[in-house]
Amino acid sequence: MDNDFHQRLLATFRVEAKEHLTALSTALIELENTPGAKHDELFELIFREAHSLKGAARAVNMTGIESLSHALEGVFAACRLQAGVPAPAVFDLLHRAIDEIDTQLLTMEPGDKSAKLRTKELVASLNEAVESAPASGAPPVPPVPEHGESPALEKFAGSGTVRIPTARLDSLLHQGQEMLTAKLALLQRAAELGAIGTALASWENEWKKVRPAVRRLRKVQQAPGAAFTDADAAQLGKLLTFSDWGHAAVKDLEYRVHALAKALAHDRYSLDGMVDTLLDDVKEVLMLPCATVLEVLPKMVRELARDRGKEAQLVIAGESVEIDKRILEEMKDPLIHLVRNCVDHGIERPVERQRLNKPERGTVSVAVSLRDANRVEILVADDGAGIDTVRVAQTVARQGMIAPDEAGRLDRERLLDLVFASGVSTAPLITDISGRGIGLAIVREKVERLGGTVTVTTEPERGTAFRMLLPLTLSTYRGMLVEVRGQTFIIPTASVERVARVPRAGIRTVENRETVEADGMPLSFVWLADVLQLSRREKGGDDAGTIPLFVIGSGVSRIAFGVDAILAEQEILVKGLGPQLSRVRNVAGATVLGNGRVATILHPGDLVKSAVRGAGVPSGVPHPEEHEDIPRKTVLIVEDSVTSRTLLKNILETAGYRTSTAMDGVDALTRLRTEQIDLVVSDVDMPRMNGFELTARIRGSREFAGLPLVLVTSLDSREDRERGVEVGANAYIVKSSFDQSNLLDVLKRLI
Question: I need a surface site. Which of 57, 459, 633, 702 has the fewest CB within 10 A?
Answer without folding.
Answer: 702
